[in-house]
Every structure is written in structure tokens, then in C-alpha cells.
Amino acid sequence: MTTSASDKATWKDQPSDVKMSCEKVIHVGDSTSIGMFDVNQLHEGSVTAIDRYLDAGAAEVDTSVFGARATNQGFNGNGENYASAIESVQQLLAQGAADDDTCWGIATGVNDAVNADAARSYGYAPTGELEANIRKMLDLLEGYRVMWPTAATQCCVAQGCEGASRRSCLRLDKRGPRQPRLIPRRRQGRTTPPPATTSAASTSQPHWLTRSRRTSR
Questions:
Q1: Of 17, 24, 89, 152, which is most buried, counting CB atoms within 10 Å of its CB?
Q2: Do 194 and 49 form a contact (C-beta atoms < 8 A)?
């Protein structure tokens, strides 16, 4: 079942004690997420993504953020093998890191799109690869609430991959109506915190919101 725009709860219309219903947030990202968790890379006076998630109602935040990985492709660097986002989620699930009150922030997709464009330049045709990666991740997180922001960075534009990022966003937008617990969001800039209390909340479905059950953390 999908929820129409008119049925969606908006953050600004909620009482001040309404928070998102996620007791825990697990944020899985690539290099575009690194700056969101580092106060030294944020604008003066800004707060980190962890602070944003906590302010929105989470009691706990876990992160798995590193490097130039893609949703379904890791990389080798400095003598180490870095997991893809899907592999990281599989590891977290196997460790029992998530329960029914856990929400996931999946912040990958830019590298998927860039890799697909690079493959085309060598004569390969990665037809359906972007959507297949999204589908594999969402199948893995079946039953969980997922917010999936995709970054568009100045670095990306400079390298000519703006179109690739746009295609990644379009695949997420296409998948959204088929996945009621998915919120696909777009964000600009490498160091922009996730819209946990802003744009995502404005389009959240009611099961993302709850009256706060706690007065302190």
C-alpha cells in the first residue's frame, strides 16, 4: 500500500513533542557522508549528523561510513579490503545491530552511477545495474524504515558526473512508490547533514513519527 501526498504527515504541522519513531539510526554511507559526521568539515555553527538524528528523536546512532565504495561494490586501499554498503549492512544485521525500532540511512548511489558511466565509456552496457543495486539493498532491509539520501557534490559536477547522480536519484524515485517504508531524498554538498529533521520529515509517512517517549538522553 502506498501513501498519497495528502496523507503524509508534515513535520511543521506536528506538536513540538513529536519525534521520529526510530529509537536507533544506522547510517551507512560513502565518502559523501564523511563530512556530515566531522564538525571540522561543517559550516560554522552547524551540528553533525549524529546531533541531527538525536534531535529528531533517536536514542542511539551507529555509523558505517568510509571511502569510495558503492552500494554493491567495495574497494581496496592502504592494504585493506573495504566492504560495499550491502556487505556492511549484512555484517550489521548478522551482529544483531538492528531491531524493529531501528531506521536505516543509506547514503550511497553516486559511485554506483559513476561506475556505470565509466563502464559505458569502455563499451559495456550496465543495463538495470543501478536499480538492481537499490533493489538488492531494499530486499536486505525488508521491513525496516529506510531513508536514502543521494548527494550531488561540487566535486561530482566538476568531474562531469552530475548526470550520473541524477540517474541514481531517478532510480530511487522510481522505487519509492513500490517501497512504502523508503524515503528517497536528494541533498546538495559533501558536508550537508542529513535532512533528518527537515526535508525528509516533511515527506515522512505517519509510521516515521511518534510523540516523544523520553525527556532526556
A1: 89
A2: yes
| 13 backbone φψ class: left, alpha, beta (φ>0; ψ -120 to 50) | alpha
> Is there a domain that residue 48 lies in?
yes
Between CA 131 and CA 126 the distance in angstroms is: 11
Task: Give me the amino acid identity at 21.
Answer: S
Place of cell 538492528: 98
- Whether 213 is in a domain gets the answer no
Q: Which helix or strand (DSSP H or E) is residue 184 part of?
A: strand 182-188
Task: Classify residue 60: in a domain, yes or no.
Answer: yes
In a domain, 146, yes or no: yes
Measure the CA–CA gap between 102 and 28, rounded to whole angstroms. 13
Closest CA to 92 of 139, 46, 180, 28: 28
Distance CA 213, CA 207 (A): 15
Does residue 215 contact residue 36 with C-beta atoms inside 8 Å?
no
Give the CATH number of the domain where residue 70 resides: 3.40.50.1110
Beta bridge partners, 81, equal 76
Residue 146 domain boundaries: 24-203
- Which residues in the chain show pLDDT less than 50? 1-11, 155-160, 177, 186-204, 211-217
